[in-house]
TrEMBL record:
It comes from the Bacteria. Residues 6-272 form the CN hydrolase domain. It is an enzyme of class 3 (hydrolase). It holds the Pfam family CN_hydrolase. Keywords: Hydrolase. One of its GO terms (molecular function) is aliphatic nitrilase activity. Its EC number is 3.5.5.7. This is Aliphatic nitrilase. Belongs to the carbon-nitrogen hydrolase superfamily. Nitrilase family. It comes from Shimia marina. InterPro entries: C-N_Hydrolase, C-N_Hydrolase_sf, Nitrilase, Nitrilase/CN_hydratase_CS, Nitrilases_CHs.
Length: 326
């Protein structure tokens, strides 16, 4: 039985809407603050660096060009000086860090989750498999290679972003790899109060179904930041609410009260023996599964736009097709 305590921190703070460097500074400061509180796992919101593309939710496509291009300029290349700074902070403090970034890969942007182990090693870079609604104007799609649980200092950690949690097969792919701590990322300050309610239901359900702890982080926007995104009071309503930073036990309970307003850092101790206690009753990918009736086919190959066959003396055999084979 896994019998130890992990102290986790879920960060709810505002990004710097003006620069990648400003947001990275806030990340590093929050890592230091959470580590001072004894945190061993520190989780940040969805695409926190440089910021979530809130503009795409309230502006029509014809008005998004300048903001979208600016996001390209401020997005994060992996690896880069920015990712190295986070890796160095993780290593210095001996903490596991899960950070959401807008990743730039040449001419495309992706919603990417990065997991740094406590020695600073980047152990996972995964991309959101399907951007949601307005986000499809901003980001490309990820692939099955990112649906991966990784071993870290704090245990087996898996991660999904936002409405990926509404894809039960994506969640099952992580559950089947026996995640012990699941990390959720949402933008926060979006849609309204109903979004926070939906996040809470989703996080509590995944904890129950996976028999895992869930550490979920959402972002926050100050009123002046909301005004900088849109001057229309009606559209500004869509940039409030939606904050549900929370830490949930495998029994589906809040370990500490959630954070739904303002900036702050939730800190809670995760009693890892509760993972086995829950799975003893219901292990969705073990004794409670019926693989002969229902099973998941997970294509974990990285997506490739080009498969290159280099010139060599070897020839590629082309099969002869008989009539019955066609």
């Amino acid at each position: 039985m896994t019998d130890h305590i992990v102290r986790a921190a879920a960060v709810q703070i505002a990004p710097d809407l003006a620069s990648r460097a400003g947001t990275i500074e806030r990340v590093l400061n929050a890592i230091a603050e959470a580590a001072e509180k004894g945190a061993e796992l520190i989780v940040f919101p969805e695409t926190f660096v440089p910021y979530y593309p809130y503009f795409s939710f309230v502006l029509p496509p014809i008005q998004q060009g300048a903001e979208h291009l600016n996001l390209y300029e401020e997005a994060v290349v992996v690896p880069s000086a920015e990712t190295q700074a986070v890796a160095d902070a993780a290593r210095k403090r001996g903490v596991v860090v899960v950070l959401g970034v807008n990743e730039r890969d040449n001419g495309s942007l992706f919603n990417t989750q990065l997991i740094f182990d406590a020695d600073g090693t980047l152990v996972l870079k995964r991309r959101k498999i399907t951007p949601t609604y307005h986000e499809r104007m901003v980001w490309g799609q990820g692939d099955g290679a990112g649906l991966k649980v990784v071993d870290t200092k704090v245990g087996r950690v898996g991660a999904l972003a936002c409405w990926e949690h509404y894809n039960p097969l994506a969640r099952y792919a992580l559950m089947a790899q026996h995640e012990e701590i699941h990390v959720g990322h949402f933008p926060g300050s979006l849609v309204g109060p109903i979004f926070a309610e939906q996040i809470e239901v989703t996080m509590r359900h995944h904890a129950l179904e996976a028999g895992a702890f869930v550490v979920n982080s959402t972002g926050w926007l100050a009123e002046e930041q909301i005004a900088s995104i849109s001057e229309d009071p009606k559209l500004q309503k869509g940039l409030r609410g939606g904050c549900m930073t929370c830490i949930i036990s495998p029994e589906g309970r809040h370990v500490v009260p959630p954070l739904t307003e303002g900036e702050g850092i939730l800190v809670a101790d995760l009693d890892m023996k509760l993972v086995t206690k829950r799975k003893r009753m219901m292990d969705s990918v073990g004794h409670y599964a019926r693989p002969e009736l229902l099973h998941l086919v997970h294509d974990a190959r990285p997506a490739q736009t080009v498969v290159r066959i280099e010139d060599s003396q070897d020839t590629v055999a082309t099969p002869n097709l008989e009539a019955e084979d066609v």
